[in-house]
Amino acid sequence: MSTKRYTVTSALLYANGPLHIGHIAGAYLPADIYVRYLKAKGHDVAFICGSDEHGAAITLQAKKEGVSPKEIIDKYHSINKKTFADFGINFSIYHKTSEKLHHETAQNFFKVLEQNNVFTKKSTKEFYDDENNLFLADRYISGECPKCNDANAYGDQCEKCGSALSPEELINPKSTLSGNTPIKKETSHWYLPMQNHEKWLKEWIEEGSLDGKNHHDPKAWKSQVLGQCKSWIDGGLQERAMTRDLDWGVKVPIKDAAGKVLYVWLDAPIGYISATKQWAADNKKNWKDYWQNQDTELIHFIGKDNIVFHCIIFPIILKAHKDYILPTNVPANEFLNLEGKKLSTSRNWAIWLHEYLKDFKGQEDSLRYTLCASAPEGKDTDFTWINFQARNNNELVAIFGNLINRVVVLTHKYWGGIVPGQNNLTDYDQEIIEKLANFPDKIGVSIEKFRFREAITELMNLARLGNKYLADTEPWKLKSTEEERTETILNIAIQIAASLAILSSPFMPFTSKKLTEILNLKNTSWNNAGKIVINKNHLINKGSLLFEKIEDEKIAEQLEKLNS
Fold this sequence. Notes:
Layout: E1 5-10, E2 13-14, H1 21-40, E3 44-52, H2 56-65, H3 69-86, E4 93-96, H4 100-115, E5 120-129, E6 134-135, E7 141-144, E8 153-154, E9 171-175, E10 183-193, H5 198-207, E11 209-210, E12 213-214, H6 223-234, E13 239-241, E14 243-245, E15 260-262, H7 264-282, H8 288-291, E16 296-301, H9 307-321, E17 336-338, E18 341-342, H10 353-359, H11 364-373, E19 381-383, H12 385-415, H13 427-448, H14 452-473, H15 483-503, H16 509-519, H17 552-563
Parallel strand pairs: 1-3, 1-16, 2-3, 3-4, 17-19
Antiparallel strand pairs: 5-6, 5-10, 7-8, 7-9, 10-13, 11-12, 14-15, 17-18
Helix pairs in contact: 2-3, 4-7, 5-6, 6-9, 7-9, 11-12, 12-14, 12-15, 13-14, 13-15, 14-15, 15-16
């Protein structure tokens, strides 16, 4: 990776409810792993996220709870910000789109686009709930999906099949406020004629070319991302309204636009920019370096339901503004299911992250490991409590934890925690040292290609290598008769443990920190891994168990809770 600077975003989370594991597996854990890796390599990274606090989802939740939209966003922003931090998702900033800075940024964006004649203004007849005297935003309309026939699709997308929709496409539309069939009433809006941008979008997405220059490698993009974009473009892009008739959101900054706000999918992605502005101001940096410098790589981590917005609508907006860089990759994940069924917050078929953190104190990394090892990278995957228990007990405890425990215990038993040196190396020792040296690159390349499952498998393979080496050499049988040989074996085993401390940091930061403290490591740069990390006579601390076994009773409790 030659670039010096990265802007990495995770999808802004609607502040209308708490976090669940589907959110984490989709857009947040992969991004956190990627960012931690980049930082371990010494790169300059802005990791941007925050609450999406506008749109109908907020007002609907406020109505449901009988409070104001502001009370809703304040409540869930604070809950989710803390939950992310407790789970080790280390954003540079977790911002809010209700902040004044965001409103100003989004409004200025709109004004520039309006001045550049990017929008067309026209009057149309829109869905209107005459009982509530309200034009209905996308999320205020539900009906039958024209693609999969699910009865509960919304006016912007079908959550069952993931199709992006418009209210006009719904079969038998109903107002979610009154349950009535809405009427049509005339109103005017600013539209983004996406069809005007098809040519350059096609070149950019399919060929990686922008303004006649090579921009990125399209082969590095996931097939489902390319496929969805291609399907949209080949089907012919349509114009989409960029304003809404609502009283909650960023007000349209034009004289004749009273009662209108920016469409949430115009407003929300600009939230990445306003958040970066705030972070830069707080840290004495220049925000433009992260959004307007061609040397910066922009990467969006999202779920598959947001592909169109991040690969078509937002890039159009960025390019039309003329000052901004476009993403070099949008590694969207598929969906995570739970116990064989689709996650559903309305049916409470979910594992809420703040509850997990309470029920499994000190076991953040057990969930991070499991979610990464079964991530929905190329297809939907399934989280089960039994699989979670198996991965924790059979891999983290029995392989990774076991290796560290043996190495630390033996070093203290034989040499009081002082690391012995390497003496004469056998062919087998050399083979192990050579294999160890390959792991940082193997894991790193997988991360750079957004293959996090592959990367974490390699990490566990390194722990397996360490266990096999100890099992093959049996140093505990040699200490009394072959002192020098025992020293060499333990030294090599300690180097494996030290590399594990470094290489586990993107995936399991809590474990990495514990192990770093046990081994008394000072330099944890990624580039040190795979080498002699710990020198002879280095003092390591006494160990403690890295992972705790999870008993059947605890899993039974979770299954009972889920099914209650």
